[in-house]
Structure formats: structure tokens, C-alpha cells
Automatic annotation (TrEMBL):
Keywords: TPR repeat. PROSITE patterns: TPR. TPR repeats lie at residues 72-105. The lineage of its organism: Eukaryota, Sar, Alveolata, Ciliophora, Intramacronucleata. This is Tetratricopeptide repeat protein.
């Protein structure tokens, strides 16, 4: 939470400085506003995020020297925000606009194209349209060599999304394959961002739980839990999920005392979250 507050302040100070200049760079201002929107999206304040993301798009569209790639990115961000707000009609509209524009700009398996495929996969997955979601995630899977080429966070996140979707479809063994690749990439490129490493460990732990592999399940779920205990002072969604999964693991394997301890910690955190809302 502290890092987010610092990031908000940096971008807000940046906008104030840019607006005070005699010659304003509106394209840069639009970019900064978009970054604030993404921060709100990350912090799950979706309505605030949407207002900033729409404002950044409107400003960028009016600029004569607008970069079309940037516009496509803004479309995609707005679409994902509408998806979080369950406004599926507008979500699909903006994600498709982004995808079509990106196809005009880039060819083949460019990262921006892969990002659009990921967004479309997430959209249809959210609607439980398994066949359509799989259509887009399959295209990502076909580009697995491209995804494995470099150890960057963008590709690590795509691999994670594919793995989570395969898990949702019941293809647990293949899900582990993608989640493990994502986990290794995240550890390589983002050593200091322990939150996403903990998220990966949690996802893998859930997979092994479904496979009734007690030893590996508890190994990864405990790793996720211990990271969050050290890293996050604030109780948040992924930490809550980690605690819930850990409690479920202990319950399924008959360790009811530890299950109760995890559930109690989960409930205490949930009370704190509700008070902050």
C-alpha cells in the first residue's frame, strides 16, 4: 500500500508540474493520467480508474501527433476496467477496438498482439464462455516459444493467466506447466515484487491440492502465506485467497487445528477490510 501511495504522489506531482508549464505536452499529460488510472485499477478502485483512463484517451485523441500504439493501449486498459466492473458490452467494445488497431500496426506474434489475445481470453473466461476463451488462450499457447524466449514480467503474467484458465477448465497438469514457467520468470525478473511471486506460489499450491499431492501443495501454499506475512502489512485480496486455500488444504488432509487457525486469521483480516471500505 505504501508503494502505491508513493506512486500516486509521483504521478500527481508530475501532472501539476506539466500543467504549470507555458507549453503543455498534452500527450505526456494523457500518458501520466493513464498511469494514475492503472494505479487505481491495480488498487481495485475501478470507478476511479475508469474516469482517469477515459480522460487520458480523450486527451490523446485530440493530439495531432498521437501515437496509434498508445491509443490501442488505452483502449485495452479501458476494456479491462469495464470487465472488472462487469460491463461486458463496453468491455468487449474497447478490447476489440484495441485488438483491431494493433493488428493494423503490428504483424505476427508481436507482444501487443499477444496482449490483446490475453485480454480477449480473460473477457470470455469471465463470461464462462469456455470455447471462446480457449480459442484465444490457444493462440497464446501456440506462441509459447515466443512467451518463453525472454524473462520479462509481461510474458510471465501471460503464462500465469493461461495456467489459471487451464486450471479453471480442469486441465490441472497442463496448468501446472504454465504456472511453473510463470513462477520462474517472475522470480527472475521481479525479485523485489514478492506479491506476484506469492500469487504464483498460491496458484501452484492450489493445482497440487486438486491433484491430492499433499507435500507439494503445502510447500507452495506455505511459501505464499509466509511471503505475504512478511511483505504486506495490509490485508488484501490475494493474501485472503492464500489463507483460504491454506485452510482448505489443512481441512482436506485432516489437520483441523491448523485449518481453524488459518480460517481465524482469514476472518480477522476480512473484518479489517470491511471496516476500511
Amino acid at each position: 500500500m505504501g508503494n502505491l501511495k508513493r506512486a500516486f504522489k509521483i504521478f500527481q506531482d508530475s501532472i501539476a508540474m506539466q500543467l504549470n508549464q507555458s507549453e503543455r505536452n498534452w500527450l505526456q499529460i494523457a500518458f501520466t493520467i493513464n498511469q494514475i488510472g492503472l494505479l487505481y485499477l491495480k488498487s481495485r478502485s475501478y470507478k476511479k480508474a475508469l474516469s482517469y483512463l477515459l480522460e487520458s484517451l480523450n486527451i490523446a485523441k485530440k493530439c495531432e501527433n498521437t501515437n496509434q500504439r498508445l491509443i490501442a493501449n488505452y483502449f485495452n486498459n479501458i476494456g479491462l476496467c469495464y470487465l472488472k466492473l462487469s460491463n461486458y458490452e463496453k468491455a468487449l467494445k474497447y478490447i476489440n477496438q484495441s485488438h483491431e488497431l494493433r493488428k493494423q500496426i503490428f504483424k505476427g506474434n508481436h507482444p501487443d498482439i499477444l496482449d490483446s489475445l490475453n485480454s480477449l481470453g480473460l473477457f470470455y473466461s469471465d463470461l464462462n464462455e469456455k470455447n471462446l476463451a480457449l480459442k484465444y488462450f490457444d493462440q497464446l499457447i501456440q506462441n509459447r516459444e515466443k512467451l518463453n524466449e525472454e524473462n520479462n514480467l509481461f510474458k510471465a503474467n501471460l503464462l500465469n493467466n493461461i495456467g489459471c484458465y487451464l486450471l479453471k477448465c480442469g486441465n490441472t497438469k497442463q496448468a501446472i506447466e504454465y504456472l511453473q514457467k510463470s513462477y520462474q520468470k517472475r522470480k527472475f525478473v521481479s525479485e523485489k515484487n514478492l506479491k506476484i511471486i506469492a500469487e504464483s506460489a498460491n496458484n501452484i499450491g492450489v493445482c497440487y491440492q486438486y491433484l491430492n499431492d499433499k507435500e507439494k501443495s503445502i510447500q507452495y501454499l506455505n511459501q505464499s502465506h509466509s511471503i505475504f506475512q512478511k511483505y504486506e502489512q495490509d490485508f488484501h485480496f490475494i493474501y485472503a485467497t492464500s489463507l483460504s486455500n491454506l485452510g482448505q488444504h489443512y481441512q482436506e488432509f485432516g489437520d483441523y487445528q491448523k485449518a481453524q487457525e488459518s480460517l481465524k486469521e482469514f476472518q480477522c483480516g476480512a473484518i479489517i477490510v470491511n471496516k476500511l471500505k
